[in-house]
Each structure stands twice: as structure tokens, then as C-alpha cells.
Specification:
By secondary structure, this protein is of the alpha/beta class. It is 48% helix and 11% strand. The protein has 15 helices and ten strands. Helix 11 packs antiparallel against helix 12. The N and C termini lie far apart (55 Å). The protein binds 6-deoxy-beta-L-fructofuranose and manganese (II) ion. The site of manganese (II) ion has 5 residues, from loops.
């Protein structure tokens, strides 16, 4: 690798940080069941401890996304425990994700529910989440809504749109200047006829209507088959409306598989659009890079280490694209030369440079091997197995 290339990889890795989801360490499943793992985390302290392991081994995931009802079931009252746990395990609280999908009252929606009392309850939970974010000194309130319907004619989609816009404006008003709203879209599941925030255009419109500190969150698993996600990213960059990502991989739908396990070139193309934008504009967009996965079969901590190192690799590869050469080839419509700028970077083995970077930071050059030799998994298995064996696994 040319000197300049390893320098490019080093500076790229220095700037790259990715947030881990607390729920990625817990026993999760599908509607066909949940295969429990003896070492899985279920308490907040265990999730922060496991995230702390991944950060200690990789050096690039200092924050943990929290889902309010899963991690702070007592709301604001749990803030001191989060602060103490984060401090103890060497991480910080990350984005705050309200839970607006599991309560029985949300059967017909949360902010889109025809029942005004339920809409008020949903907004109250979001406002509590804004306050939790303020107390934990984290800026992002990350909003995903399961809201929608399963059958034609059963809901007034225009009226729900207005309720959402009003509530998101109220949430934006509640935030202080350091806070942001991230609006996540998803085309379907759990609703299978319409979803109130189904695509990037709807999330964009709701973000604009909410206020200047509302941005769009792109979950890579929330797209129709063969949708060009990096084009959506390019648009949102150009509109200065890209707030963040939930990275995962998928073959079919919102499979929440580990990043880069199915289509690593997809994530590379997304990273390329961001770096090309940075090169062209000279500005670094304020993007929250986050993982959103559920590890139903793989060991949860190993899957998370694999995810972080794969993200680093793809980010480092995207730093190797010769932007000047690419821009010239694009201007001249030299298709093969232009495409090869990406393919050459993507096919460059950056692992030696990443190992060098890790060594320079006093980090293990092989985090997975270091984790397996650490004895951490054996220790937590001993501590958690009995409790996890007792947990319910059936869906119905
Ligand atoms: C919805 C989603 C959302 C989270 C949830 C865990 O599919 O992507 O971001 O709240 O997964
Ligand atoms: Mn998501």
C-alpha cells in the first residue's frame, strides 16, 4: 500500500466512530421464537459492560444507543444508574430511542392513533425521552414509529400525517439547541398495508416541518429490494438533511444481519458518497454512525466486534478512492475509469494498515482473537446462564 494510502487509512480511522445498540447484546428473536444465549445481557449494567468490552478492544465505539423502556424502565429516575454504569464500563450514553411500539395502547398507532389520549401519551413519552437525553448530555433523540395499518381503508393516512407533523413540531420545541431529532423511516413491518413514515421523502418532509434540528435517519435495512440507498444518501447530503445511520445487512427485508455480511459493497458505496461529498465540499457532515442489529444466532459480543471491524475496513477502503481522478473521469463520462476508482479502492486489502493503526493506539490488532483469549465470555456465562435459562422463548 502506497505511503499516502496508509496515511489516508490512518486519518480515516482516527475520525471514525460507530455507536452500538444496547439491544444488540440482549436475547432477541423473531416471531418464530428466540434462541437464548447463556451469556446474553439483560440488565443495563450487563449491556454497558459488554459494550465496554467491544470499545476497549476496538477503540471506536464509545457510545451506546439506549431504548428507553428497555434500558430506563423507570424513565428519568434511571438516569443516575446509566451515568454510573457508563462511567464504570468506559462508555457514554448514546442516542435515546423512545419505545412507541410495544405498549398495548399502540395497537392502532402512537402519534398516528385516532385516539387523542393515546397520541398525547405517545408525545409525553417522547418529551420524557428528550429530557432523559438532556440529563445524559446526549444530543440525539432517535425516533422510529411502528405506526401504520394492515388493511385498505382502515386508517385516514392524511389525518395521521397531520398528527405526526404536529407532534414532531412539539418534540422539536422541547429540545434545547444542542439536541437533534433523528427521524427514521421504514417501508413496512410490523404494519403491512401502510406505514406512516414509510420512506426517505416522508421522513424528510416531517423533519423539515419539525424544525431546523430534525434530520433523517437511514436504516440500511429499511428499503425496498434493489432501492439505491447511496442515491438517497447523496440527496440527503446535498440537502444537509442526513442525520445518521442504523447499519446492518439484509438479503430480503429488515433482516438486521451483521453489517457487510451479505453486501459489503453496499456499505462501501454509502461511505464513498459521504467521503466524496466531504472532498468536493470541504465540509464534514455531522452524521451519527450507529449499528442496529439483532444477533439471534451469532454470539452477541463476537457479532458486534465483527460488525465494528468490518465497518472500519469498509470506511478505510472508502478513504482510498482517488477523488480527483474520479471527478475527472465523471466529467469526461469515462465510465470504466470512473467505476474502477471505486473498485480499486474496494479491492485494496486495508487490514495491515488497520492493524498498524490499532498497534499505534495500543489496541489489539485482532480484537476477536483478543476477546476469545480474554476469558470475559466464560466469566459472564457463569454469571448469567442460570437466569437466561429461565427466560421465556415462545412467541405465542
Ligand atoms: C425498527 C428499528 C428501530 C429500532 C428497532 C430496534 O426496525 O430499526 O430503529 O427502534 O429497530
Ligand atoms: Mn433502526
Amino acid at each position: 500500500m502506497r505511503q499516502t494510502q496508509s496515511e489516508a487509512v490512518f486519518s480515516a480511522l482516527e475520525a471514525f466512530r460507530i455507536e452500538l445498540p444496547s439491544w444488540g447484546f440482549a436475547n432477541t428473536g423473531t416471531r418464530f421464537g428466540k434462541f437464548t444465549q447463556a451469556a446474553a445481557a439483560s440488565t443495563l449494567a450487563e449491556k454497558l459492560s459488554d459494550a465496554g468490552q467491544v470499545h476497549a478492544l476496538t477503540g471506536v465505539c464509545p457510545t451506546v444507543a439506549l431504548h428507553v423502556l428497555w434500558d430506563l424502565p423507570n424513565g428519568l429516575a434511571d438516569v443516575p444508574e446509566v451515568e454510573a454504569g457508563a462511567k464504570r464500563y468506559g462508555v457514554r450514553a448514546g442516542s435515546i430511542n423512545p419505545n412507541l411500539f410495544q405498549d398495548q395502547q399502540y395497537k392502532h398507532g402512537s402519534l398516528g392513533n385516532p385516539d387523542a389520549d393515546i397520541r398525547r401519551a405517545a408525545l409525553a413519552h417522547i418529551l420524557d425521552s428528550v429530557e432523559i437525553g438532556r440529563r445524559l448530555d446526549n444530543r440525539d433523540i432517535s425516533l422510529w414509529f411502528a405506526d401504520g395499518s394492515n388493511y385498505p381503508g382502515t386508517q385516514n393516512m392524511r389525518r395521521r400525517k397531520r398528527w405526526f407533523a404536529e407532534a414532531l413540531q412539539a418534540a422539536h420545541r422541547q429540545m434545547d439547541d444542542a439536541q437533534r431529532l433523528l427521524v427514521e423511516y421504514k417501508p413496512f413491518e410490523p404494519a403491512f398495508y401502510h406505514t406512516d413514515i414509510a420512506d426517505w421523502g416522508m421522513a424528510l418532509e416531517f423533519s423539515r416541518l419539525a424544525g431546523p434540528r430534525a434530520k433523517v435517519l437511514v436504516d440500511t435495512g429499511h428499503h425496498y429490494q434493489s432501492q439505491n440507498i447511496e442515491q438517497i444518501v447523496a440527496w440527503l447530503l446535498d440537502l444537509d438533511m442526513l442525520g445518521g445511520f442504523h447499519f446492518n445487512d439484509r438479503r430480503y427485508a429488515d433482516d438486521d444481519l451483521t453489517l457487510g455480511s451479505i453486501d459489503p459493497y453496499q456499505i462501501f458505496r454509502i461511505f464513498h458518497e459521504i467521503r466524496f461529498f466531504e472532498w468536493e465540499t470541504g465540509s464534514r457532515p455531522d452524521i451519527a454512525y450507529m449499528v442496529d442489529q439483532s444477533h439471534n444466532l451469532k454470539g452477541k459480543i463476537e457479532a458486534m466486534i465483527q460488525t465494528v471491524t468490518t465497518a472500519q475496513e469498509l470506511w478505510a477502503k472508502s478513504a482510498l478512492v482517488d477523488h480527483r481522478k474520479l471527478a475527472t473521469a465523471q466529467e469526461r463520462s469515462e465510465l470504466v475509469d470512473a467505476e474502477n476508482c471505486l473498485k480499486d479502492a474496494f479491492s485494496t486489502d486495508v487490514r495491515p494498515a488497520i492493524a498498524e493503526w490499532s498497534r499505534s493506539r495500543g489496541l489489539p490488532t485482532d480484537p476477536l482473537k483478543a476477546f476469545r483469549e480474554s476469558g470475559y465470555l466464560e466469566r459472564i456465562t457463569g454469571e448469567r446462564a442460570e437466569r437466561n435459562a429461565a427466560s421465556v422463548t415462545t412467541y405465542a
